[in-house]
Amino acid sequence: MGRALLPERRVELKPGEYDHIQEELEKRRWNFVLASLPDEIDEVLVKEFYANAWEPDHSQPHSRVSKVRGKLVHYDRRSLNRILNTLMFQPCPLGAFMSSYPDHDLTASTLCLPRYGYQLGTSGTPVRILRKHLNSLATMWSLFTFTNICPNSHTSDINLERSYMVYGIMTGIDMDVGAYISQEMALIADNDTCKLGFPALVTALCKASGVPGVADITLKLQPPLNKKFFDRNCTNRGEFSAMNAPHPVPPPRRNVRAARPPVASSVPSPDLFTRYMQQSLARQDDIRDWCTTMRQGQLSLQDSMYNLSLGIPDFPPDSLMTGDQFAVQIPWPEGRPESRWGSAFPGAPEPELDEQEDMMAGDGHEEEEDPDPRWTQQSYHS
To answer: 235 and 131, same structural domain?
Structure first.
């Protein structure tokens, strides 16, 4: 096999350096082995492992096994969690999150810089996030997954599934890391072109399974993920500039003169208010005249249809009402509406001035500011 290897990285941080990264590694028990793999890789042994890896029963992931130098090396989730000293979850909380249609806006707001998000595909669905749009913490965790969980040499962006994984790590969603690594190993074994990932872990697996001759160390791990690496490759300059930007200085205060005392609003005179209400009622009178005219047209149309039905042979009797029957069945209110403010049509009695003043002054128990009389609903009676 002429395929290249993609070695893992160790996480080497001192106390006080990126404590949030160290705390998350300890909480997930990744600090024992996954982030501190032995710096020894047997290239020939790793290639033999992937060349002989098979899955007897694809419906049973626990049956994944390889044969290296006459020894069976199991790489199922249970075997991997055992050697990594990590916890198993059934079902995997992160897997349940991925299959629950996560909120892409929420995921992007957690992983990306402000005003950035997913790149959309031709169908308008989220596809990837560019690395330059990730915030610093998301960049650090994505690089860790690129070498130690889901190996990939293409690191300029993260696809949809990897964005869910990084989001789960950053938000504390539990993850069965042994199951994910087992699945990745099976995919690498089935693919003839991708690089061979997990070489240090495969070497440790073979050594734990009693494979003879695990001493030909030909490769080393990639440079570790330490403070120098994070500062140089993972700190987003735009985010750093925003965090360290000086706070805006408020403009100097001006000597503002004391505001003038509020002037009480003038109350319209009763005559002016009455005139306004009469103009409003005049419009209502016009509307009523228009409705009365339409009512007369309805009665005339009803009579015409009734007379027309009399000349139609075999027309069902009493299927149409006459105009008089229609008026009795659907009565029309008689008389014009009256209001305490008077009316615009001639002959209507004008309200007395005392009544207008009472309406303007109120009874003394109302709020300081009365509602606008233009929006007060008028009550009518026949």
So the answer is: yes
pTM for this predicted structure: 0.62
**What does R_g of the chain's alpha carbons equal in angstroms?**
42
Task: Give a yes or no: residue 260 inside a domain.
Answer: no
Token readout for 69 is 């130098």
Same domain, 228 and 135: yes
Residues 371-374: contacts with CB under 8 Å, at least 24 apart = 373/273, 373/277
Classify residue 247: in a domain, yes or no: no
201, part of any domain: yes
Beta strand ranges found along the chain (DSSP E): 5-6, 11-12, 65-68, 71-74, 119-120, 126-130, 157-159, 196-197, 225-226
Of residues 272 and 241, more confidently modeled: 272
Handedness of CA 116, 180, 50, 84 (dihedral sign): positive
Do the domain assignments include residue 370? no
* Full domain range(s) for residue 120: 5-242
**Nearest one of 246, 206, 208 to 52, comparing CA atoms:** 206
Quote the number of domains for the chain.
2
CB-CB neighbours of 253 under 10 Å: 6
Interval 96-131: pLDDT, tens: 999 999 999 999 999 999 999 999 999 999 999 999
